[in-house]
Design a protein that fits this description.
The chain is of the alpha+beta class. It contains 10 helices and 21 strands.
């Protein structure tokens, strides 16, 4: 991010601190509690947001070299993502063309070939069928027509995108609108994957996303965890058609304001958080990136799975001046997001499911929630949220 833009964003935070203000959306909105409980709405979301839309499955660091692979099972079909021998990112249905058996069971690793455990049909990292046992017994087939079923895949700005439909189209500029320049400036493509975690929680997927949408709750819910580090109820916000960027206010900004602007850096005094439509949150720390992909449960509206991946600047791994190890970092993240935010949100889910509370409110100081919910409603052809 250009230095002038970093200074602008930091000055915005400092102004809010000095004036005791926050962002102001101008109105309070009512969000129907049914947004988190309606099966018909959940079915439309699954089709329009997930099965029919490109999905961010990881970052370039998940496939660090030729032969690297990553597997997923999130949209009703198993996916095998690879970096082929030429270094190209590819994605396939993780199913043998013989009898449909899953060919790779490990979540990630490195292989030159993938061998089906059922009959040992063998495929390259580029999806080609390279051999079958006893071809004289099986019968003649054209190997060139029986490679793995390929899915549209594209790598840009350090992000891996896959369309779940073989005939789908990925418009990366539209999917990543507004975010690409920042991702390039932060060097997303160079970050190294260090760990992953899964939070399976009793809350609708949008409630999980909501927890990342404001800092109004820091002084209460996170008073012993995040609030000593962040100024709560102070944030920056910029948005595009579907995506947005928040800047959280780190208390280090109190010292930064006394230094020359030429020394100001956003990461450290601020904490960028990006929302990629429909379900991905990027948390950008000083030396790390934490990506949260929230996926709705296929059968339970009030349940979701958050796939959390941690990436570090390769130049800072092992640096004794960097506070804490990667392991300590992701344990702390789980203790806050899973055990504080998601636990609180699961109680909101219970209230929504009771049928006794018709509305939840989004305040004037929660503009990211206004944008997020009105964005997905617009995509589904629903009217904007009503003013309270």
């Amino acid at each position: 991010m250009k230095h002038d833009e970093q200074v602008r964003l930091l000055k915005q935070l400092i102004h809010q601190l000095d004036t005791g203000t926050n962002l102001d959306a101008g109105i309070v909105l009512r969000n129907p509690a049914s947004a988190y409980t309606c099966p018909d709405l959940a079915a439309r979301e699954r089709q329009d947001f997930f099965l029919g839309y490109p999905q961010m499955i990881g970052m370039s660091g998940d496939l660090p070299e030729p032969g690297s692979f990553l597997t997923l099972d999130e949209w009703g079909a198993r996916i095998l993502a690879t970096r082929d021998e030429e270094g190209r990112f590819r994605a396939f249905l993780n199913a043998c063309r013989h009898r449909g058996v899953q060919i790779e069971a490990q979540p990630r690793g490195k292989r030159k070939h993938f061998v089906c455990p059922f009959h040992a049909w063998t495929y390259s990292s580029g999806g080609e069928l390279v051999s079958i046992p006893k071809p004289d017994h099986f019968g003649e087939i054209d190997k060139g027509c029986h490679g793995l079923i390929e899915l549209p895949a594209l790598e840009k700005h350090g992000v891996l995108l896959v369309h779940p439909g073989p005939d789908g189209v990925i418009d990366a500029d539209r999917v990543l609108e507004g975010l690409g320049p920042d991702f390039d400036d932060w060097g997303f493509a160079d970050y190294v994957h260090v760990a992953s975690d899964v939070y399976d929680m009793p809350l609708n997927w949008k409630l999980a996303i909501d927890t990342f949408g404001e800092t109004y709750h820091f002084s209460s819910l996170h008073r012993n965890t995040l609030f000593p580090i962040f100024h709560g109820n102070v944030q920056g916000f910029d948005h595009w058609e579907r995506n947005h960027r928040m800047i959280l206010c780190v208390r280090e900004i109190d010292q930064l304001r006394h230094r020359p602007e030429s020394e100001w850096k956003l990461r450290g005094a601020g904490f960028p958080v990006y929302w990629l439509f429909p379900n991905v949150i990027f948390n950008v720390g000083r030396h790390s990136i934490t990506v949260v992909r929230v996926v709705p449960h296929p059968d339970e509206v009030g349940r979701s799975v958050s796939h959390v991946s941690f990436y570090f600047d390769p130049d800072e791994l092992g640096n004794p001046q960097v506070e804490g190890t990667p392991e300590e970092f992701f344990e702390t993240f789980a203790a806050i997001i899973r055990d504080e935010d998601y636990v609180a949100a699961s109680k909101s889910q219970r209230s929504a499911e009771s049928g006794l509370q018709d509305w939840f409110l989004f305040g004037r100081n929660e503009p990211t929630l206004h944008h997020y919910h009105n964005t997905y409603r617009k995509v589904l052809g629903l009217p904007p949220l009503e003013e309270a």
